[in-house]
Amino acid sequence: MIMRIFQVRVRDGKEEEFAEFFYKTAIPMMKGIEWIVQVLPGAPHSDNRRDFSFVMVWKDLASLKAFVGEDYNSPHIDPAEAELVESRLIKHYELVD
Fold first, then answer.
1. Origin, by domain of life (predicted)?
2. pLDDT of 9-44, one tens digit each?
3. Residues 8 and 52 sit within 8 Å (Cβ to Cβ)
4. Measuring CA to CA, which residue among 17, 29, 12, 11 is closest to residue 78?
């Protein structure tokens, strides 16, 4: 299984708008993908109101590529979030029991 960690830093002043997208669009979308075994969405902690994240456990690399394409190291971005996000970070790991 592949663990995919996706983090975004929201543009200053766009926190509420991104939070609405995160809760109403991004979380339901990720939870609805059949190849994802587990989704752990992370909302900002009081330390930094601009950082959001997802930890996703994918069935395998082939499933991840089927969803995001061959360049799976590039963040898959919904057009609704593009103007709200200042930066993105994505990492992949083999899940260890």
1. Bacteria
2. 999 999 999 999 999 999 999 999 999 999 999 999
3. yes
4. 29
Instruction: Tell me what pLDDT residue 57 has.
Output: 97
SS3 content of the chain, % helix, strand, coil (to 5): 30, 35, 35
In whole angstroms, what is the distance from residue 87 CA to residue 97 CA? 31
Q: Please give the helix or strand (H or E) that residue 4 lies within, else none.
A: strand 2-10
Residue ranges of alpha helices (H) inside the chain are 15-21, 27-31, 61-68, 79-82
CB atoms within 10 A of CB 54: 19
> What is the rounded CA–CA span in Å between residue 68 and residue 93?
16
Among 35, 53, 48, which residue's Cα sits nearest to residue 91? 53
